[in-house]
Amino acid sequence: MKTGIVVGDLGPSQLSYYIIRNCNKELEHNNKDDFVVFVENLSKFAMQPNFGLMSIDEIWSFDGLLVATSISTSLQVQKATNNSKKYFYVWDLEWTRPHGHDFLYNIKAFKNINLIARSDEQAEAIKNYCNIDVSGIVEDFNLQELYKVTNQ
Predict the structure, then answer these.
(1) Nearest partner of 31 among 72, 1, 52, 61, judged by Cα
(2) What residue ranges define each of the domains in the chain, with the CATH number in brackets?
(3) pLDDT for 10-52, tens place per residue?
(4) Is pTM, for the whole model, over 0.90?
(5) Nearest CA to 18 among 138, 124, 149?
(6) How far does Cα 77 stand from its chain's mean position?
(7) Three-state SS letters, the chain
(8) At 24, phi and psi to the nearest 5?
(9) CA-based nearest residue to 68, from 32, 28, 34, 112
(10) How far apart are CA 2 and CA 81, in angstroms?
(11) Which of 15, 24, 13, 78 is nearest to 48 (CA)?
(12) What is the pLDDT of residues 73-123, one digit of tens each?
């Protein structure tokens, strides 16, 4: 199965750690899966990835499961006219930050895409913010849980 994950960067962060660790671990035990991480910005990696990295500009040609991880990457994924199954894994409640964009900008990231939350509490916060139910809960970027939620 082809899985594309779209991130701001893979620099030191909890998100980067879980993505790299879980994809590397999955590749050690399973040679059927193919992972590509699409990045908005290149940076020093949190850990050494054992999978492909590409610029976010390349998502137009991707045709597998495509998972955005932020408001900006969700907006990019939704613009891509490719044959991929698109999800927004809401890793962070970005709209609660003082530097966040306004509601009308943010809400575009939640429309026309399936949402995944990290916890029940986060799912409730998403529902309260944009009145949209999530497709499922996936903790710590667990790939097996992700595949169950996305029916892969």
Answers:
(1) 1
(2) 2-149 (3.40.50.2000)
(3) 999 999 999 999 999 999 988 788 999 999 998 998 799 999 9
(4) yes
(5) 138
(6) 10
(7) CEEEEEECCCCCCHHHHHHHHHHHHHHHHCCCCEEEEEECCCCCCCCCCCCEEEEHHHHHHCCCEEEECCHHHHHHHHHCCCCCEEEEECCCCHHHCCCCCCHHHHHCCCCCCEEEECCHHHHHHHHHHHCCCCCEECCCCCHHHHHHHCCC
(8) -60, -45
(9) 112
(10) 17
(11) 24
(12) 999 999 998 889 999 999 998 888 777 667 767 788 888 899 999 999 999
Whose tokens are 């809401």? That residue is 90
Structure tokens at 129: 């913010």
